[in-house]
Each structure stands twice: as C-alpha cells, then as structure tokens.
Amino acid sequence: MATDSSKAKPTHSLTRRISRQDDAIIEATWAYYHDGLNQNDIAKRLGVSRASVVNYLTEARRREYVRITLDSEIFLNHELSERLKDAYGLTAALVVPSDPSSPAGSTERVARSTADWLPHLLEPGDRMGVAWGETIYRVAEMAPHLSIEDITVVQLVGSRAADLGFAAEVCSGTIARHFGAHCINLHVPLTVSNAELATQLRAEPDITEQLAAVADCNKVLFACGTVTDTSHIARTRILSLDSLEKHRQEGATGVICARLIDQDGTPIPTDIDDRMLGVTLEQMRNKEMGILVASGAARVPGARAAIKGGYVTHLATCSQTAQLLLEQET
Known about the structure:
The protein is an alpha/beta fold. The chain has 15 helices and 10 strands. The protein has 2 domains: about 10-60, Arc Repressor Mutant, subunit A (Orthogonal Bundle); about 70-330, Rossmann fold (3-Layer(aba) Sandwich), CATH 3.40.50.1360. The strands form 2 sheets. It has a 7-stranded parallel β-sheet with strand order 1-10-9-5-2-3-4, sandwiched between helices. Strands 6-7-8 form a 3-stranded antiparallel β-sheet, covered by helices on one side. The chain is globular, with a radius of gyration of 23 Å. The protein starts with 11 loop residues before the first helix and ends with a helix. Residues about 1-10 have low confidence and may be disordered.
C-alpha cells in the first residue's frame, strides 16, 4: 500500500543525518568565530568541502547562532558625529558609512547599526515609545535577541494597514519580543471617521490607560517621513494627495507619527488631527531621549526639521546624509 509522504514520520536515519548536520554547523561556527580557523582548515577538520563550510556558516547566521556587530563607539566618535553634535546640539550622533552601491543599502546599514545601538541606550525602568513605518520596521527586525530588565515598549500610534507588515503594532511588538520587554499596544485605529467618535474612544477606560502609557514614555524611537506623493503617509491614505499638496504649500516638510511639521518642526494642523488616535507632537517633544533614524537625501529636510523642533536627542544616520545635514547649517 502506498504511503502518504506528507504524513510520514522522519526515520531514525533521517533524524541522525539532521543531527549530524546541526553538529557540523555548530562546530564550523565555533571554529571560524572562536578558534579563528579559515574555511579551508575547517573543511579539513570536518572532512567536507570548503563549499559545505560556507553553507554551514551561512546557515548559522540565518538561524541567528551568530550575530555580527560592530562596536557603536566607532560610529559615535566619527568626525561627522562630532560635527553633527556641535551643529545641532545633539547628545549623540551615530554615523555609519554610506553604501556606495545604493541608497537602499545605506538605509539597511543605518537600520542595522540602530538595532545594535538600542540596547546600549536602554536602562531598567525605561518606557520606550516606538513609531511605525518601513525604517522602524527594519530596525525592529534587526534588533538583537537580548533580555533587558524592566523595559516597557509602547506603540505610539493606532493601527493602520501598511505595506509588508510595517504596521505600528508589528514594529512595537517585534522590538518587545526581541528584548524580552513588556509591550503596551494601542488597540484603536490610527484615524476614525469623525472627531466625536475619537473623543468617545479616548474616554474608554482601556484606551485611556493605553494613551496614558503613550504620553508617559521617557524615550521614543521614530523616523521622520517625507511629504511627497509617494510617501508613507500618502501610500497609507492617511492624507489624500490633494491634502498633501495643500499642506506642502503651507510649508509641510516632514511627518512624525502621521503628523505634519514645517521646516522648524512646528506642527502644521490638518483636518484629521482631531480624528487621530496616538501620540501628539507636543508629547513627542523634549523627551529624555528622542532617537531619530534617518538615511537618504530625501529624508534630510524632515530630519533637520525634527531636530530643530526639539524632537531629537540621538540621531542614527549615514555619512552622506550627515554631510547634507551639515551643509544645511553652513
């Protein structure tokens, strides 16, 4: 009688082969990263080809047996870091080398370095508010799996459907999971149909408590979005293209947590402000720590506006963006 292979249990021989492969992956990883052997030496030790060793090391990184990081201090003591701190009055600026091949590569580098930096910025008792969008999602995904004592992660804005899982609850939940932190989600939509409904929702006891946690964050992690027709705020239809054009004419330069700011960081009122559920710009200002993640020429006006407006104490960026920010101040 034929056997349904999809339901068949692994045989003992298959289990042994998997176990041997796992042992080989671990041995290759230890020999390479701890013993300092090269791939040819490891291949001889294990009796396999060099190509197999390359595959073992790749698999080890995929499984997160190994996490390669660079000391944040290298990028905090960069000449550009010091110049940014002096020019903008920042507490710290982390500047990584731009990727010469693509802006997307630079953004990936900045997200990775921010993820590695975050554990050094957090202390027991901290309540870190987390924004949303692609940049913050990248940081969340790359955050190391560490247990940080007595940390609370708070979702700063209500939920809104977003491309590729960039939704606010995903960003906050992912960082909380990686750091073993308590997570407070904001269980409401980002915008509702009218101001009266928003007021009623804010009065609900559970939501009142969640919004109090949003206001009470002592540290925040965010990006400042653009106001173009292809921006995150446009793609998620928070504001229509006509509204965006109108506000650009009024001086809109950047977006923080779905709220518009001008070149000085001053809020620009919109017709959805009273229908929005989440952190306000006033609540985002003058935090103990405001961590802005910014990479790319298109992000320079918004980043500069956010710094000018008092939302930023710590900046993570790339060398090209740093240069452009400094040119804006000369």
